Every structure is written in structure tokens, then in C-alpha cells.
Amino acid sequence: MKAVLKKEPAPGAILADVPVPRPGPSEVLVKVKATSICGTDHHIYIWNDWAKNRIKPPQIMGHEFAGEIVEIGPGVTSAKVGDYVSAETHVVCGHCVQCMLGEKHVCQNTRILGVDRDGAFAEYVVVPEENVWHNDPRIPPAIASIQEPLGNAIHTVLAGETRGKTMAIFGCGPIGLMAIGVAKSCGASFVAAIDINDYRLDIAKKMKADMVINSKSQDPVEALLEHTHGVGVDAVLEMSGASLVFGQMFKVVRAGGRVTLLGLPAKPVAVNFSDDVVMRGITIQGITGRRVWETWLIGRELLASGSLDLTPVVTHHLDLADYAKGMDLMTSGNCGKVILYPEGVSH
């Protein structure tokens, strides 16, 4: 089969012919219909410091996908050939303290598809049966393939009350853009989107952001305090990882509000905890992954109801062989979600 392979510890990847994997005990083999590029995949492709310390080539990249089960391994009980599926990409141990407490998203022994084991930038991928998510047949493969990052957006938005709340979302990458739609469909009364990229701010408007702010040309602190009459917003969702934002977000959240963090700063950042957090009664939350399977269920219902439309977030459709073009788009920032098709875009 064709697969995008991180062959060696260096920037780039190759399109290689590799054997079709075979499912082992309690595993299924999925024929990939669509797979989407994540920021993590881009980190691996450009070979940044995180990738150097985590990835052990050779390895097939990619983890977000939708496809059809074509073979099942011994011991599989509920999945069957022909099922239309995606997958939770965090393969967890099931026996650590976090797993026993129902907090699988922070399992101590997590192994990630396309990071710690071969992934989905390929014609076929093997996943554990317990990670299989049965897709609503009404959801097309391109949208079904991005339910995993949608779960991150849902987890971030719903970490606190949304109904009637005002929110500021810093960072309009794909997950930030999805968070706008989730917040609006879950009752947020006002959502501001802040970024430095006009291309992505245009998508933010399509995702029903009430205000968009390019922080290169407009001070988000001034704009949001003016809009809220000096009070600030109820919640800040930090999705950018930009260190500058950490000096802004505590100024725009109201006293008693919440700051929910998904973005990953490249370096440690300074925070004035005494004045900005403790004395103002701010709640800070760290978000990782998705709540299994809660956020998947919520995402399926939001999509099925029609209240959440992710179509504007998907901006490019490419053949799997054109993965390098997709990675270049990610580098430029002038894209939303880039979908790759192992059988070609026409399929």
C-alpha cells in the first residue's frame, strides 16, 4: 500500500510502498477513505524539537481519519467488516489510576496513533477495537475524519458553562475555528475570535464569530474591554500557544471568569498569579485530548442536528500523494483543515 512515511530523523517524509498491516488480537483493519493533517503531523514533518524527542522513525504518519473496516482480528466482538468508522487516537492502558477514574484522556501510558505507532496517512490502518468510533452514515468522510480534533474543541468549550456566556477565543487554527462553532451552537451569546491571520479570521466569520480581531492591527484588550464596558468576557479559550497571549488573556477575562488552555507555548511563560489570577478569582483549566467517549457523543449529536457546520473549516482536498503541498499550506497558515484521500480526491 501507499503510505506517508517518516523514514528518518530529519525534516520531510516520503511516499512509500509498504506492506498492508494485519490486525492482531482485538484489532481491526480500516481502509482509509479520508485523513486530515493535524498540527502534530506538521510538527513531525518539519521535525521540530518536540518531534525529535518523541518520534522514532521509520513510522507512518497521521492519526485523524474515516474509513471502512475490511478485516477483523481474533477476539473482536462488536466491530464488523463494512462498518464506517473513525477512531479515538489515544490508545490507553485501561488500568492506571486515571483510566480507573474514567479519565482516559490523561492516561499515564497513552500511546498515540501516528506518533507512537503507525498511523493513518496510508491506504490502510490498524486500530484497537476499543478505539473504534462508529460514524453516523450521514456524515461525509471529510467531516468524519475531523471528529477527533472536534473533540478537543468540545472539551475546551464545555469545560465550563456556555449558555448566555461571552467568550474570547485566541487562536484560529482548525481547533479554534471549530470551537467558535461549538460555542455558538451550545448557547454562547458572544464569541470573539483573535488571530494574526486574515485568511483564518475570514473562516472565523463563517463559523459565526460575533467579532474578529487581527491583533497585528488592533489591540484585543482594548477592543474586548470596550465591547464589554470594561467588565471583560466570561471565558477565554487559549488555542494559540503564543506567549504574547498570556499577557493579554487575563486582562480580558472578567473577575470570577475562566481561562481554559489548549494551546502549547513553545517556552515557559510568565504569569502574574497574585494580581491576575488569585486576587481576581480566576479559574484556570488545562485541556488535553478528548473526554472518551463523551466529547465524541456530543460532536455526533451537534453534527447530526445541523446546529454545527464544519464545512468552512475544511479548506483543501488533496490526493495523499500531494501530502507535501498540504504540509506547505500548514506552514503558510493559509488553510483550515487539509484533507488527504488515499484513493484520490475524485473518490
How many helical elements? 12
Q: Tell me the Rg in angstroms.
A: 20 Å
Number of spatially distinct domains: 2
Residue share in β-strands: 25-35%
CATH class of the largest domain: Alpha Beta
CATH topology of the largest domain: Quinone Oxidoreductase, Chain A, domain 1
The low-pLDDT segments are none
Spell out the helices and strands N to C.
EEEHHEEEEHEEEHHEHEHEHEHEHEHEHE
Give the overall silhouette: globular
Overall average pLDDT: 97
Helix content: 25-40%
CATH architecture of the largest domain: Alpha-Beta Complex
Taking the alpha carbons of the first and last residues, their distance comes to 17 Å
Give the structural class.
Answer: alpha/beta
Find the count of extended strands (DSSP E, 2+ residues): 18
CATH superfamily of the largest domain: Medium-chain alcohol dehydrogenases, catalytic domain
Cofactor: Zn(2+)
Protein name: L-threonine 3-dehydrogenase
Domain Enoyl reductase (ER): 12-340
Keywords: Cytoplasm, Metal-binding, NAD, Oxidoreductase, Zinc
Descriptive notes:
- It is an enzyme of class 1 (oxidoreductase).
- Residues 12-340 form the Enoyl reductase (ER) domain.
- InterPro entries: ADH-like_C, ADH-like_N, ADH_Zn_CS, ER, GroES-like_sf, L-Threonine_3-DHase, NAD(P)-bd_dom_sf, Zn_alcohol_dh.
- Belongs to the zinc-containing alcohol dehydrogenase family.
- The structure is a single chain.
- With 347 residues, the chain is of the alpha/beta class.
- It folds into two domains: 2-146 and 310-341, Medium-chain alcohol dehydrogenases, catalytic domain (Quinone Oxidoreductase, Chain A, domain 1, Alpha-Beta Complex); 153-286, NAD(P)-binding Rossmann-like Domain (Rossmann fold, 3-Layer(aba) Sandwich).
- The chain contains twelve helices and 18 strands.
- Strands 3, 5, 6, 9, 10, 17 and 18 form a seven-stranded mixed beta sheet that branches. A six-stranded parallel beta sheet has the order 13-12-11-14-15-16, sandwiched between helices. A three-stranded antiparallel beta sheet has the order 2-1-4, with no helix packed on it.
- Strand 11, helix 6 (174-185) and strand 12 (190-195) form a beta-alpha-beta unit.
- The longest helix is centred in the middle third of the chain and has 12 residues, at 174-185.
